[in-house]
Fold these 2 entries.
Entry 1:
Amino acid sequence: MGVFSRFMDIVNANINSLLDKAEDPEKMIKLMMQEMEDTLIELKSACAAKMASKAKLDRNGKELEALVQRWISRAELAISRGREDLARDALIEKRKAISELDRLKEEAARYTDMIAKSKEDIGRLEDKLLSLRQKHQSIAERAARAREEQTANDTLRKASDSAAFGKFQHMEDHVDRMEANASMSRFATNDVENRFADLEELDDIEAELEAMRKQAGTSK
């Protein structure tokens, strides 16, 4: 079943409201566009048929106008030849032709109005379709951006959950441990250096102390 059931449903429809209620706006808008395009084809076909009928009426009208003039000419000819009976018949036929011509003119005028209305309807529907196509383009672009963002997010999530990321984390932890060990080694080296420096300083102090004892005569 189509989104719309007839022309007036389309032109009077609140497109934004329909799209807001749709679960899949992009799919909904495609269905609307398809139905509008189908309706346009029908309207244009019907309008073309009316225009063809109007053209036929115009041709028949011109033939009747020529026929009216022909009966007038025949009536005049009959009068000039003293044949009033034939002139009377010619005038009767002229009246019939004029009556038919008036009927055709009225029908042609009615077709003119119908064609104008059909063209107006086609214009309104084409405007509606143009607006819908613009909405479709906007929605399609937004959907494409959303899909791109979703793809990027999925890629990042997969990368963060992947074994490669785990290996990288393992390497980073290993480097951290190496740096910590190096720092501890430097601390150990500095401690040995400090202890030797202390011993050397004690030797210097003992030597100085011994010298002072000797000088005081208290050396043993």
Note: The chain has two domains: 7-161, 164-220.
Entry 2:
Amino acid sequence: MTKPRVRVYTDYKSPYAFVADRALFELEEQHGVELEWLPYTLRIAEYLGSVEERSPHYWRKVRYAYMDARRYANAQGLVMKGPRRIYDAFYASAGMLFAQRHGIFRPYHETVFKRFWSHQLDLDLLPEIAGIIAELGASAPEFEAYVNGPARAEHDRIVAEAESLGVFGVPSMIFNGELFWGGDRIGMLIERIRAPETRQLALGNRAR
């Protein structure tokens, strides 16, 4: 029997994606679903403007968000240090796609998250991502050729498709066409997996 599939969009530089990761793998292990992991690389500068333009209200929100995510990290025994600067995570996202095709997805995924949030990895340096690929037994030159070849077009197509489905942040999960945003919606997602017919009741007239 084919397992129900949940599509998961994530970004390695998102604190909330990091702290939701364990619960997502538990979802797969305990509820008989298959996770399809895809990158949704957040474009921070595009969404939020330059650092100079951001208001005190914005910075209060940012400080709270990291404090809140750190609470979740501490509860799981995870190290989470605030990012030292704004990162472009394209290389790490391309690494996710490459790792899936070479049988090293989960160790790659966990290594990138762990090292980035403990200040042991710069996501936007190609040699560092290629180094992880090689460390896990795949070909760094082949990965670099992928990055310099079809990776950008594939990545941009995935992001555009995500946005066509309503995705705007991470972690985002899609099950049977329904979008769930944030780790705190995993419980609701589990309810839907157990009883897919509740979707119409939950969404009311929009689902009819």
Note: Residues 56-75 form the longest helix (20 residues).
